[in-house]
Each structure stands twice: as structure tokens, then as C-alpha cells.
Design a protein that fits this description.
Blueprint: E1 6-11, H1 19-31, E2 37-42, H2 44-47, H3 54-70, E3 79-82, H4 88-97, H5 102-106, H6 109-117, H7 124-139, E4 144-146, H8 152-169, E5 177-179, H9 213-221, H10 239-252, H11 256-263, H12 268-294, H13 297-326
Helix pairs in contact: 3-12, 4-7, 4-13, 7-8, 9-12, 10-11, 10-12
The structure holds tryptophanyl-5'AMP.
Tryptophanyl-5'AMP (TYM) is lined by residues 8-12, 20-21, 23-25, 43, 46, 133, 136-137, 145, 147-148, 150-151, 154, 185-187, 196-197.
Length: 333
């Protein structure tokens, strides 16, 4: 039998996760779990690129880990660990930064956005962030990387760096493909549906995975739509309605056409309530399991330690090869 192909993906532990994180990424982590050999990280070092409260960061790491488990990821099948527990991420990141051009990093739209938002702390980590992300992926020789559309540019950079390195040293890295859902790859803000849903925006613009049902319904009822009163998928002209249609389509497993034929003519109130029902029904069982996992610190510790050990075994092999190829001495004195 052919060995399974590998997946790597990660989520930053910054506060709670949103419905965008769930639909764009986390949901697919679970859907792909049986078909692939999966490595899922809580990328805590990436979170340091903006100033964090240490206590809140530690807590957020456990929150994200509990959410990984709550969506059903199975630690006997998938590795679930903290990025900072496997030192090879940082080690490879340094090497790869010597194979990444400043011109490439200058073009990253996320860097431009984040620098505008954190004008008083445009640190070097924010700039080299995509190199650490490339190291995450390439360390594990991942074939596929489930992500939302906003990470596509970073993934393309990882591919370019892998190809560049391979050209010089032979086939060291696997050149990874992105897995971006066709519907739901970019879940939009509920208040400004031309912007992506983001946890750094005001609370009424996003649904948090841990929001109470009443809050979810309230936010969706207040979601910005338009005055046409038609359920039709047209992201350019009807961004609000199209966003809600995508959410409903993904969560109910029906096509956008089916959403339109089910709800067109029924009015936005009925449609928004149907979206709220779908979101609440999806998140309620996840929230219940979340509470169980999040209060079991011993279990979380066991999973993270066990996974980190296995992750490090894979990472150390890749890193040994990289060291050899670039000419760093094989043993550390
Ligand atoms: P992060 O932590 O911002 O987001 C985690 C995942 O959620 C997706 N996502 C969305 N998808 C659809 N609609 C949205 N509104 C939305 N918001 C977020 C993101 O695309 C992402 O897949 N750099 C990454 C983390 C990372 C990583 C990696 C990912 C570090 N190393 C290696 C993959 C592989 C990030 O900041 O994602």
C-alpha cells in the first residue's frame, strides 16, 4: 500500500477562533484526517509577532488545542502540538531566511496590513513571519496544506522557497499544495462584508467558535445585507447575502444553488435565522466537547507532549538533511 500523503497546518493562538477559522481551516483538518497523515500545530511562535500578554497567550494555546480536539481531531491519528515545543521550526526558519529575498517579503499583503495596524511595533518577526510558516510546512514534507484564502500568498512563497532550495541541493523538500475550500475559503465580516472576518475587528463583525447561541443569532440578524431582498449568489454586488449563503452552504452540505432555491422569496429574516440555526447546531456540540477538554489539563499535556515528541522525530530528520546539504557540521559540539 502507498504510504499516506502528509498534511501540515497551523492556527495562531490569538484569543478565540472565529467561524472563519472553522470554515476556512479547522473543519477541513477534520474532514481530511483519515485520508492523510496529519500534523496540526498551534503556532505559538507566530503569535509573538504582535505583543502578547504571557498569561493570556498560554491560555489561548490551550484554548486552541482544546478546539482542535473538540472538532473531533484524534490524537492517535494526528499530531497536535505547540510549535515552540519542536525547536527545529526556528532552526529551519533561520536557514530558509537565507534563501528568501526581501523583495518577496516586501510583497506580502498580510505584512503590509499588519504593519499598518501595528505601526508602533513593525518588528523583524512580523516581516519574516512567512519564512517561519514555510519552515513549519517544509520540515514535515507536507504534500497538502489546508488553509483559508488569506494564506494563499504565504503558501506560494513556501513553494517558491522549496523549489529554490531543491534546485541548489537536490530534492530535499516536498513542494506543497494549498487546500482552500471553493466555498467558504474567505468568510467575510458580518458588518463590512467586503473584508475578511477577523478576530482583530470589533466583536459584532465576527462569530467566535465559543459564542453563546443567543449572541450568534443576534450577530447574524444584524448582519449587513442589501435592499434587494433576493437570495442570489453575487459576491461583487451582494457581498453580505453571498457570505451568508456560503456559510449556510458549507455547514449544511448543500450547494449555493440549493440555498438560493430553498430561501429565495422568503425574506432576509427567515434566511438569517436559517443561517443562525445552522451555525448554532454546528457549534453547540463542539462547544460542549471544548468545555470537557479544556478542563482536563492533564489530558492536554499528555497529547501535546506525546505529539511533540513524534513531531520532533520527523523534524529532526529533515533538519539533519538540511544541515548536511548546506554544509553545517553534522554534530553539535
Ligand atoms: P490564522 O491563525 O490567522 O488563521 C488560521 C486559519 O484560518 C483561516 N482563516 C480563514 N478562513 C476563511 N475565512 C476567514 N475569514 C478566515 N480567517 C482565518 C486562515 O487562512 C488559516 O488557514 N499564518 C497562519 C498560521 C500558520 C500556518 C502555518 C498555516 C503558521 N504556519 C503553516 C498553515 C501552514 C495564520 O496566521 O493563520
Amino acid at each position: 500500500m502507498e504510504p499516506k500523503k502528509r498534511i501540515f497546518s497551523g492556527i495562531q493562538p490569538t484569543g478565540t477562533l472565529t467561524l472563519g477559522n472553522y470554515i476556512g481551516a479547522l473543519r477541513n483538518f477534520k474532514l481530511l484526517e483519515d485520508e492523510y497523515d496529519c500534523v496540526y500545530s498551534i503556532v505559538d511562535m507566530h503569535a509573538l509577532t504582535v505583543r502578547q500578554n504571557p498569561t493570556a497567550l498560554r491560555k489561548a494555546c490551550l484554548t486552541v488545542m482544546s478546539l482542535y480536539l473538540a472538532v473531533g481531531l484524534d490524537p492517535d491519528k494526528s499530531l497536535i502540538y505547540f510549535q515552540s515545543h519542536v525547536p527545529q521550526h526556528a532552526e529551519l526558519s533561520w536557514v530558509l531566511s537565507c534563501y528568501t529575498y526581501m523583495g518577496e517579503l516586501n510583497r506580502m499583503t498580510q505584512f503590509k496590513d499588519k504593519s499598518a495596524r501595528n505601526a508602533d511595533n513593525i518588528n523583524a518577526g512580523l516581516y519574516t513571519y512567512p519564512v517561519l510558516m514555510a519552515a513549519d510546512i517544509l520540515l514535515y514534507k507536507a504534500d497538502l496544506v489546508p488553509i483559508g484564502a488569506d494564506q494563499k500568498q504565504h503558501l506560494e512563497l513556501s513553494r517558491d522557497v522549496a523549489e529554490r532550495f531543491n534546485k541548489v541541493y537536490g530534492d530535499v523538500f516536498v513542494v506543497p499544495d494549498a487546500y482552500i475550500p471553493k466555498v467558504g475559503g474567505r468568510v467575510m465580516s458580518l458588518q463590512e462584508p467586503t473584508r475578511k472576518m477577523s478576530k482583530s475587528d470589533p466583536e459584532d463583525t465576527y462569530i467566535a467558535m465559543l459564542d453563546e447561541p443567543s449572541a450568534i443569532r443576534k450577530k447574524l440578524r444584524r448582519a449587513v445585507t442589501d435592499s434587494e431582498n433576493a437570495i442570489r449568489f453575487a459576491p461583487e454586488n451582494k457581498p453580505g447575502v453571498s457570505n451568508l449563503m456560503s456559510i449556510l452552504s458549507t455547514l449544511r452540505g448543500i450547494t449555493l444553488d440549493e440555498v438560493a432555491s430553498l430561501y429565495d422569496g422568503k425574506g432576509y429574516g427567515v434566511f438569517k435565522d436559517a443561517v443562525a440555526d445552522a451555525v448554532i447546531e454546528t457549534l453547540a456540540p463542539i462547544q460542549e466537547r471544548f468545555r470537557r477538554f479544556n478542563s482536563d489539563k492533564a489530558y492536554l499535556e499528555e497529547v501535546m507532549t506525546h505529539s511533540a515528541r513524534r513531531a520532533e522525530a520527523i523534524a529532526a530528520k529533515t533538519m539533519a538533511k538540511v544541515r548536511r546539504k548546506v554544509g553545517l557540521a553534522a554534530t553539535r559540539l
